[in-house]
Amino acid sequence: MSISPTPTAPAVAAVIDHTLLKPEATAADVAALVSEAEELGTYSVCVSPSMLPITVPARLKVAAVCGFPSGKHTSAVKAAEAAEAVRNGADEIDMVIDVGAAKEGAFDRVQADIAAVRAAAPAPTVLKVIIESAALTDHEIVEVCRAAVAADADFVKTSTGFHPAGGASVHAVELMHRTVRDAGLQVKASGGVRTMEQAVAMMAAGATRLGVSGSRALLTSAGGGDTTY
C-alpha cells in the first residue's frame, strides 16, 4: 500500500476496523458503534459473533472474531463459529490461532487450524489470522505468517488486544509485512493503536488495516481512546 508520509484523518479512517469486543457490550452499544463508524468513515465494524446479525449502511463492512480471545478452541469449533458468523452477515473473520501450538513449534497444527476456518468461510469472505505477535519470537512470527500464507488467509493480524504480553509494534508489523507481502497477504495492526502518530507508524511499516476501538479519539486528537478491544 502506498501512503503519503502524513496520511489525512479520512485516509486513516478508511483503513480502520472500528471495534467493540468488550464482554459487557449490548445491542445498543453495537448500534452506537455502527452509527459512529458511519460518521467517522471507517472501513468496517468488528464485533463479537453473538452480536450478529446487525444492520449497517451498504458501504460498511462487518467483521466478527473467531476463537476469541484465547485461540484455545478446537478447529472444529472455530470453523463452526466462523461459518455461523458468515451466515449472519459477517464479511470478514478475525480468527485467533492456538498460540501455544506456535510456542511449541507445531506450525503444521497452526496451518491446519487456519485451513479449517478458511474452508468454513471461503472467499469472498476475508480471513484475518490473529497471531498475538507480542507473545512470539521473531522466528515464531515468521513461521506463523508462513502457515497463514499456506492456508490461504488474506491477512495476518498482530493482536487481540487482550493478551498481557501487549499489542502491536512497528517491529512486528514490519516483520509480518516482509514475510507475507510477496504472497499477496496484508497486515492488520491491532492492540494499543490509540493515536494518529501510532496509526501512521503502523501504516508506514506495512499495515493496510488497523483495529481500533477509540477511533474518534485517534482521529480527532493527539491521543487517548479506549484501551480494551
Automatic annotation (TrEMBL):
<comment type="function">
    <text>Catalyzes a reversible aldol reaction between acetaldehyde and D-glyceraldehyde 3-phosphate to generate 2-deoxy-D-ribose 5-phosphate.</text>
</comment>
<dbReference type="GO" id="GO:0016052">
    <property type="term" value="P:carbohydrate catabolic process"/>
</dbReference>
<feature type="active site" description="Proton donor/acceptor">
    <location>
        <position position="188"/>
    </location>
</feature>
<keyword id="KW-0963">Cytoplasm</keyword>
<dbReference type="GO" id="GO:0009264">
    <property type="term" value="P:deoxyribonucleotide catabolic process"/>
</dbReference>
<dbReference type="GO" id="GO:0006018">
    <property type="term" value="P:2-deoxyribose 1-phosphate catabolic process"/>
</dbReference>
<dbReference type="InterPro" id="IPR028581">
    <property type="entry name" value="DeoC_typeI"/>
</dbReference>
<keyword id="KW-0704">Schiff base</keyword>
<dbReference type="Pfam" id="PF01791">
    <property type="entry name" value="DeoC"/>
</dbReference>
<comment type="pathway">
    <text>Carbohydrate degradation; 2-deoxy-D-ribose 1-phosphate degradation; D-glyceraldehyde 3-phosphate and acetaldehyde from 2-deoxy-alpha-D-ribose 1-phosphate: step 2/2.</text>
</comment>
<dbReference type="GO" id="GO:0005737">
    <property type="term" value="C:cytoplasm"/>
</dbReference>
<protein>
    <recommendedName>
        <fullName>Deoxyribose-phosphate aldolase</fullName>
        <ecNumber>4.1.2.4</ecNumber>
    </recommendedName>
</protein>
<dbReference type="InterPro" id="IPR013785">
    <property type="entry name" value="Aldolase_TIM"/>
</dbReference>
<feature type="active site" description="Proton donor/acceptor">
    <location>
        <position position="94"/>
    </location>
</feature>
<dbReference type="InterPro" id="IPR011343">
    <property type="entry name" value="DeoC"/>
</dbReference>
<comment type="similarity">
    <text>Belongs to the DeoC/FbaB aldolase family. DeoC type 1 subfamily.</text>
</comment>
<dbReference type="GO" id="GO:0004139">
    <property type="term" value="F:deoxyribose-phosphate aldolase activity"/>
</dbReference>
<feature type="active site" description="Schiff-base intermediate with acetaldehyde">
    <location>
        <position position="157"/>
    </location>
</feature>
<keyword id="KW-0456">Lyase</keyword>
<dbReference type="InterPro" id="IPR002915">
    <property type="entry name" value="DeoC/FbaB/LacD_aldolase"/>
</dbReference>
